[in-house]
Write a structure and sequence with these properties.
Length: 153
Amino acid sequence: MAADEDEGVKAQRERWRLAKRAQRGVPAITVRPVSDQFKLAVLAERDRRLKRSYRDWAVLDYPDFDQLWRKRSFAASVWAAKTLLVAEFGDVGNSPTRIACWLRDEGFVGDYAKESVRPLVYEARKIIATLERVGMKGGAEPFWPPFSFGDGG
């Protein structure tokens, strides 16, 4: 008889847990597959952004150019991952963990250790925000202008 009561209590707790989850309104993730054209356009824009960064910074006698280039290259990959994941999953696709997993799956992590990718995504997102906002030598156009591709996928 005690075992029946335990099963009843467990079942009641499970019902409460499910009801609480539904009450919180945990959004269901809707996946909108992106077209191959959109993915190619995003990756081409990533390459354009890297070329623009190289053109703007390679002329300077920057002492740590290799380190800067590595950070910019990773930031461009994070930008591409973020753009593709937001197009596919909406705003929930924007998490650093999901971006890090996408980068690992697609082979964009280079020689970074697996454990260090997610913290680097946080740093890269700060770099992206700056590059999309600030221009070279006080110019009006930012380093990385906004990207648009019609309906986004």
